[in-house]
Amino acid sequence: MTDIDKLKVGEIMDRKLIAVSPTTTIRAAAKLISTTHVDTLPIIEDGKLTGIVYDDDILGYSVEHDEEEMASISIEQLVRPPIFLESGMSARQAIRLAAAKKATRIPVVDNKNSMHCIGMISSTELLREIVKADRFRKRNL
Question: Which ranges of 14-86 does DSSP label H, i.e. alpha helix?
Fold first, then answer.
């Protein structure tokens, strides 16, 4: 078993959660994405992860709709079912899911029964852990 197998998602996730509610307007979500430099927004309702929206969803919508529409329509129209990780999953499981879904940021929930979103993990953080594990392995050969 390697370090990647032992390391838990909850240990490396970012606990600073940038999220929106289903009633957030598309314009407000676009502004949040542009000011925080994230590409993925979890949709949180009553503390639970209910969906996800990506910057390219909003970008695509903005091509066909004007500013007024974006300021009056909720993000709910663009929401996709969420992909997520549980905090107790291994970093290897997270890497596999991120690669399979081509996801750059994935919400982390405490467990799939409660769906309480507690953070996010990025592909950059996962790559950092792969590099650390590889360095450790090379030192100990």
Answer: 26-36, 55-64, 67-72
Tokens of 115: 């769906």
In order along its 141 residues, the chain shows pLDDT tens digits of 568 889 999 999 999 999 999 999 999 999 999 999 999 999 999 999 999 999 999 999 999 999 999 999 999 999 999 999 999 999 999 999 999 999 999 999 999 999 999 999 999 999 998 888 776 565 554
Strand partners, 54: 40
Find the domain containing 64 and state its range.
Answer: 3-139
Q: pTM of this prediction?
A: 0.89
Extract the tokens encoding 136: 């450790």
CA nearest neighbour of 9 among 77, 97, 93: 93
Domain count across the chain: 1
Give me the CATH number covering residue 43.
3.10.580.10
Report strand pairing: 105-109 vs 85-86: parallel
What is the token pair recorded at 18? 């940038």
Tokens of 126: 């996962």
User: If DSSP codes are grouped into helix, strand and coil, which group holds residue 91?
Assistant: helix
